[in-house]
């Protein structure tokens, strides 16, 4: 446990130190570029990362986690990782292409309607419906191999796999402490934002990136290789969306800078991936992703 705790803390600190170094070297005029609009980036995004990873490493039962890792690997026995990952990457490319198409043609096809309204169905289609149909059809792939991975991820009956609520709660509390108090927002707007974020962002993205992509990349690259590779994919696509002004991204509420977006999503992707690798609990991952995004969006809702 001490070894795992130290590794998690080192990775978390490495994220913060690397991000800080990039900022100092590449953006010497930081305050003038608007980094401190609202809450400071380091307080609301980067500081919680090493804390969350260290807490997760501390409270996780690592002997049981290793047994869970073996269950997850066994769930994919007989599957072609390269075949399935090729399909998943094709769908991810389709998602980005659809984003571009929607952003360019929505205004012409739907007069006066913001293109972002069309993003939830695009995200759900390419990151949820099609991946499950093509790669993991209710537990059976197109090659005919069965899998118990949906049961591993969704039927979380082991109590220890819910101890992840503690590091997730710590992370959300640190984000809230950095972002609030903020001007009051009508409860109806908060509820509506929560429903949209969880249904159209957290559920499809966590199932796609964590349950489908990361689990398979971990089989090919090892635990940390899978976490880092998935985080890189998550970061690249999220920065792309932020550049198109997708308001369902954390970076859109922090800043429009590309480097800032890379820092935000790179750090977030690593901690999301680490928590998933500890507990393989998709409900926990959805709560983590949706809760952190909702907290960053709430202060902006007052503009509506």
UniProtKB/TrEMBL annotation:
The keyword Nuclease does not apply. InterPro entries: Rce1/LyrA-like_dom. Keywords: Hydrolase, Membrane, Protease, Transmembrane, Transmembrane helix. GO terms for molecular function: endopeptidase activity. It comes from the Bacteria. Pfam families: Rce1-like. GO terms for biological process: CAAX-box protein maturation; proteolysis. This is Membrane protease YdiL (CAAX protease family).
